[in-house]
């Protein structure tokens, strides 16, 4: 099932709204990072820059065939051979990577889902013990140019409570990702 309110505006516009290198820096992704799983490749906005900087492969999933096609095309044009973009309903089927196999999982702009604990649990299962579940979402305390309706937009405290229910712990408080996002580092013990 497609997560509610998870459609995308045009690519050019979407990619003006996010400081992608700054966000990837904030989570410490670099050459020492192995495999990463991502729920919702969208246009590959994060998948491609991440693939360029990590040592492993990015396994990125999307329920929308157009998003998968765009991400594959962009990866091919960029000559990246460590992007695996697959059509998959992660809510119904999980990430499709071996359990405990990834250094990190990305839940970027998706935890306004109907079943956030299930998504966090699937991400936890994908990462190794000690692995990172990286979350970003739109802030609710400022006016933002995009993002899901405020009624379903989760705040950091809400995500921390869901993460605890999913068997993840927080690594520090939430942090700002200017101009319109916050981030959270969740760890699997
Ligand atoms: C708001 S976009 C964010 C994309 C990307 N994470 C980013 O921040 O640029 C959410 C994406 O999740 C995808 N999606 C929604 N429900 C999904 C599901 N159940 N399984 C896999 N992908 C899903 C949508 O098709 C969309 O491409």
Provide structural commentary.
This protein is of the alpha/beta class and 189 residues long. The chain has seven helices and eight strands; from the N terminus they run ααβαβαβαβαβαβββ. Strand 2, helix 4 (65-77) and strand 3 (83-87) form a beta-alpha-beta unit. Helix 6 packs across helix 7. The longest helix is centred in the middle third of the chain and has 13 residues, at 65-77. It is globular, with a radius of gyration of 15 Å. The mean pLDDT is 97. The site of S-adenosylmethionine has 22 residues, from strand 2 and helix 5.
Give a quick precis of the structure:
The chain is 30% helix and 24% strand. It has helices spanning 11-14, 20-26, 47-53, 65-77, 90-93, 116-126, 156-165, and strands at 36-39, 58-62, 83-87, 102-108, 127-138, 169-170, 175-177, 181-187.
List keywords for this structure.
single chain, 189 residues, alpha/beta, 8-stranded mixed sheet, 8 strands, globular, binds S-adenosylmethionine
